[in-house]
Amino acid sequence: MTTTTTGSDFAALARRITAAGLMRRRPAYYLVRLGTVALMYVGGWTAFLVIGSSWWQMLTAVFLAVTFAQVALVAHDLAHRQVFRTRRPSELAGLLAGNLGVGMSYGWWMDKHTRHHTNPNHDDLDPDVAPEVLVWAAETAAGRRGLKGFITRHQAALFFPLLTLLAVSLKVSSVKALRDGTVRRRGVESALLVLHAVGYLATLLVVLTPLQAVAFLLLHQALFGVYLGLTFAPNHKGMPHPTGTEDFLRKQVLTSRNVRGNWLTDVALGGLNHQIEHHLFPGMPTPNLRRAQPIVQAYCAEIGVAYEQTGLLDSYRQALRHLHEVGAPARAEHAARRASARRG
């Protein structure tokens, strides 16, 4: 996954980052991280088999939801070639983590994420802010009716509940992409997704009672979606939407938000709390992002570019506030229609 990097300001910053050795690979870190996540995955399903038919499996569902999100975060690093230098091992590991591990098309997500990195928060070019269930630009909020209109009017309040459907949405989008033939390795990806789905459902149905299986599936997938959504929500939501005329550095910095925290924040969010550094240097290994942060922040201060950094809870507040403000035209339009109907 690559992005075009131009402009003298970015070139000067890149020289400082390179001189600090922050683009170097971190094989020991990723050996530990990938090994830990693999142990969590195998350990979670082993515990599932050992516990057997029991409502205590709901705790296993919670643990595996966290594990699935961590696997997805590993797939994110693989897509950016932070782990392996070349494409082939990155793609192979990504397919195993994404398609087989969590049931999401790695090729579909990689294409979508590449377009996001190229034009973050751009209303027309960033698929992450395209008006679908949620609307991120006021210009597209008006005119929605029915269920979509209801969601738009109340999207701030519905944001976290809707995250429970994120895992399902990723699976549906993956299947659509494979059906439409927009994924390069269509046969391999389809086979791995089918293998994941069959293995997942068969395991639940063999070990649990039907009612327990349904409860496990709903809880596991809902929490997986919530956790995954919470790792991405603070990064760009509520930040400015560019026109496309900005240079690379300003386009990436002004649309991104960092989240303050310690090593635990880094682990929980997969390093995405250093979103500005990640967008400027997507190939930088995750553990180097924290070290790059003061260099990037100081440089932005030098050239007069705003650098947004806030706490985790405040980042969610800002995102929700933005959603509420964007829904204002839809609420006004709905109120006007109701008033007109009463007068009529």
Account of the 3D structure:
The chain is mainly alpha-helical and 344 residues long. Helix content is 69%, strand content 1%. It has helices at residues 8-19, 27-51, 57-79, 87-102, 106-118, 146-153, 155-163, 166-180, 186-207, 210-236, 248-253, 263-269, 275-280, 286-303, 312-326, 328-343, and strands at 258-259, 309-310. It has a two-stranded parallel sheet with strand order 1-2. Helix 7 (155-163) packs across helix 10 (210-236), helix 9 crosses helix 10 and helix 10 crosses helix 15 (312-326). The longest helix has 27 residues, at 210-236. Residues 1-6 have low confidence and may be disordered.
Summary?
With 344 residues, the chain is mainly alpha-helical. It contains 16 helices and two strands.
Keywords:
single chain; two-stranded parallel sheet; 1% strand
Number of strands: 2
Low-pLDDT parts are: 1-6
User: What is the averaged pLDDT score?
Assistant: 92
Helix tally equals 16
Q: Name the helicity range.
A: 55-70%
